[in-house]
Specification:
The protein is an all-alpha fold. It contains 11 helices and 2 strands. Helix 3 runs antiparallel to helix 6, helix 6 packs antiparallel against helix 7 and helix 7 packs antiparallel against helix 8.
Length: about 325
């Protein structure tokens, strides 16, 4: 049996002053643990988007009519508020689960040996985005689900997914300088793909803000444009993204690119086709709630897929310390 080291007063003070450093001195996670922690944060970032969509699609956006309390008199939802109150309050509580996942990623990154400061910074970036989005979510409620604030809320969630995806990728790489795996023309094509995907997501928020799912059964202001016309623009952008993805796959095959970029481009293409099918079905069936929720999940997966293609264009090996070679060692011996 291993004896647990007693904590001294100095240890307690050290834990209070810098808890992350205190934990790091006593715990060294494996690389796989750090990777799983980063993946957990990414998964929770996607989950919070989907559950937020469920709040909107069930008309529960004002289930808790105020913020930070659920009502003026209660911090939590009450039985009198019914299902809508429970759904909205439950989504608020999931923010704490997201914070726990991000906190685990930060602690694991800080405790890894050697300490990689870049990973810790990515973890803290997620934390501050979560805090900012929680405040913005409160503003969304206070302004009665104004569609522009709802769109900003979703886009900030997309920023969280972006940082989480970058951290997950970085946990499986070293800290050496990035080395490109493809030529500059291929890199430019991928950046066009990224730009098109950003436009696709941004226009998608306009479709949601103008569409029939206002987020609550009460009268909620909408973006005053034809959602059907914006949906058609959204579809055009989707086809542009699909075309760029197929062109990228063709170019990567032509230049005999490594399997990493090829595989991720193929996966993105399959995700886009699935997302396109869902999009067209929901459009021609008057936007049923279940398909809209599935489409929101697909939006997250498409963006993650685009980021993974972008990050597959380079490699970052481990930094290897320079060790004296045989000639150097012989010279040192003669000296």
């Amino acid at each position: 049996m291993v004896r647990v080291q007693n904590l001294t007063r100095a240890d307690a003070l050290s834990a209070v002053r810098n808890p992350l450093a205190f934990i790091a001195e006593r715990w060294t996670p494996t690389s796989r643990t750090v990777q799983r922690a980063a993946l957990a944060a990414l998964v929770m970032a996607v989950v919070i988007v989907v559950t937020g969509g469920a709040v909107r699609l069930t008309g529960s956006g004002l289930g808790c009519p105020t913020w930070p309390k659920c009502t003026d008199d209660s911090l939590t939802a009450t039985s009198a508020m019914g299902l809508h109150g429970a759904i909205e309050f439950g989504n608020r509580m999931l923010t704490y689960v997201l914070c726990a996942a991000v906190g685990w990623a930060i602690i694991a990154a800080r405790s890894q040996k050697p300490w990689r400061r870049s990973l810790t910074r990515l973890g803290w970036a997620q934390f501050w985005i979560v805090m900012s989005n929680a405040i913005l979510g409160g503003i969304v409620v206070l302004v009665g689900l104004n569609p522009y604030t709802v769109a900003a809320h979703f886009l900030l969630s997309t920023a969280l997914i972006t940082v989480a995806a970058f951290m997950w990728q970085r946990t499986r790489e070293g800290d050496a300088a990035a080395r490109p795996l493809v030529g500059k023309s291929v890199q430019q094509l991928v950046w066009f793909l990224v730009a098109a995907a950003v436009l696709l997501i941004a226009v998608g928020t306009v479709v949601t803000g103008a569409g029939p799912h206002a987020g609550d059964s009460s009268k909620v202001d909408r973006i005053h444009v034809s959602w059907e016309n914006v949906a058609k623009l959204h579809a055009v952008l989707a086809w542009i993204v699909v075309t760029l993805t197929f062109a990228l796959w063709f170019v990567l095959k032509a230049v005999d690119a490594p399997q990493g970029p090829l595989r991720r481009t193929r996966n993105l293409f399959l995700i886009l086709l699935s997302q396109g099918v869902i999009g067209y079905v929901q459009y021609f069936t008057s936007l049923p709630e279940a398909l809209v929720a599935l489409h929101m999940l697909g939006s997250c997966l498409v963006w993650i897929g685009v980021l993974r293609v972008l990050l597959a264009l380079r490699e970052r090996p481990e930094i290897v310390a320079d060790l004296p070679g045989p000639a150097t060692q012989s010279a040192l011996t003669r000296a």
